[in-house]
Design brief:
This protein is α+β, with helices and mostly antiparallel strands and about 400 residues long. Helix content is about 25%, strand content about 45%. Strands 11-9-15-21-20 form a five-stranded antiparallel beta sheet, covered by helices on one side.
Length: about 400
């Protein structure tokens, strides 16, 4: 690949040689160290090969006294390309200005790539960067990374680290989000752990206080599981933070009603494509008029940064906007589709309500119900059922 690029830069020619003794031409190339490639025989007296422009001039001098004919079949390379424009001064000047502007523009930031953020939105990071002088069109080599990092971390407390690295006309922003500190527990606050729902207790782990139930006990919602009030002969009555974890088997019955008729998009096949060029904050539309005035259509936008050969990024982005027209049509769900949707909704709702729990068994039933499909879930789960409830101050006093 590199050798091909070098040959293209030097310029090369494809030659056809016709001679009664063609091997003499090859022997001369070998004797005078004239490299060539792409040797192909057309017949016993004719062959073609390729060599650089300078080596072709050497071959011409060496073959003057030989009984052979050398024809140029094809010329390729940068010297021949530039020769075509030697009298087109306006085109050469325009090309030079374009390259100069592209080179000058590569010293400024025209695009951002943000990595490492999950909870913090990219828009928030870009607004903070713009507030402290880093935006589209900013001189990339004039950024004080340390000062910028200190200001951004104060502006966005959710971040613990940020770095801005400029490569060409693109700024790569790497961030690391701050890990939330665990909630502090006030051990001086007295309270009890009670059941948040009916369950069969399977395990109890008291951290502080006195456990009031044993594994195998059936409890109802609100039942006292770990008491923060203890009474003994030596210390008397004490108020503690009766906290801990209690695990139990729970049962759920959930229902979901899925309509049998659903409205869906149906694409008509009508499609409009618009192109535009973006240079920083400027946009040049490559089409006449504005966007199509369509009531029902989906719009997708593709952005392709333009680059020069060799991967040199340009401060220009090609924008492709596609509009796909659709119509709203009603469609009747099949019973299998409705059941699958109902199961998905019920399972997600069940898992969202579990606290450190898993689903041990689950059974689904579905029946038609008033123009819809009614899906019922009966599940048995294993979960943490304890919840801390503070003791009122007047009672603790």
């Amino acid at each position: 690949m590199l050798q091909r690029a070098v040959n293209y830069w030097k310029g090369h020619v494809k030659l056809r040689v016709v001679s009664g003794f063609p091997e003499r031409v090859l022997n001369i190339c070998a004797a005078r160290q004239i490299p060539f490639w792409g040797l192909e025989w057309e017949d016993d007296l004719t062959f073609t090969f390729t060599m650089t422009r300078k080596d072709y001039a050497r071959l011409q001098k060496a073959a003057e006294r030989m009984d052979c004919t050398i024809h140029v079949v094809e010329k390729e390379g940068m010297p021949y390309l530039l020769r075509r424009f030697r009298r087109r001064y306006a085109l050469v000047i325009g090309l030079g200005l374009c390259l100069a502007l592209s080179l000058f523009g590569s010293f400024f930031i025209w695009d951002f790539t943000i990595e490492g953020n999950e909870a913090v939105r990219e828009e928030e990071i870009l607004r903070a960067l713009e507030k402290y002088g880093v935006s589209l069109g900013t001189f990339g080599y004039g950024i004080d990374s340390s000062d910028l990092r200190n200001h951004i971390l104060l502006e966005i407390p959710e971040l613990s680290y940020i770095a801005v690295n400029v490569r060409g006309c693109r700024a790569y922003v790497q961030v690391r989000e701050r890990q939330a500190a665990p909630e502090l527990v006030n051990k001086r606050e007295p309270g009890n752990t009670v059941a948040r729902r009916d369950a069969l207790v399977t395990a109890i782990q008291p951290y502080d206080g006195q456990k009031m139930v044993l594994p195998g006990t059936m409890v109802q919602e609100g039942a006292l599981l770990i008491s923060g009030v203890t009474d003994d002969e030596q210390a008397g009555t004490r108020f503690l933070r009766g906290m801990g974890k209690v695990y139990g088997r729970t049962w759920y019955t959930l229902r979901c009603q899925v309509p049998a008729v659903v409205e869906e998009k149906q694409y008509t096949g009508e499609e409009y494509v618009r192109f535009a060029l973006c240079w920083g904050n400027r946009r040049i539309n490559l089409y006449a008029g504005g966007s199509p005035a369509l009531a029902n259509c989906d719009k997708t936008v593709e952005r392709t940064p333009l680059t020069l050969p060799g991967g040199i990024a340009l401060p220009i982005t090609l924008v492709k906007e596609t509009y796909r027209v659709y119509e709203i049509a009603e469609r009747e769900r099949t019973q299998a589709e409705a059941e699958e949707l109902g199961r998905t909704v019920l399972e997600a709702y069940l898992l969202a309500g579990l606290d450190e729990g898993t689903v041990e068994e689950a059974a689904y039933t579905s029946i038609p119900w008033e123009g819809s499909i009614l899906t019922e879930l009966n599940a048995e789960c294993q979960e943490q059922i304890g919840i801390f409830v503070p003791i009122p101050k007047e009672e603790a006093a």
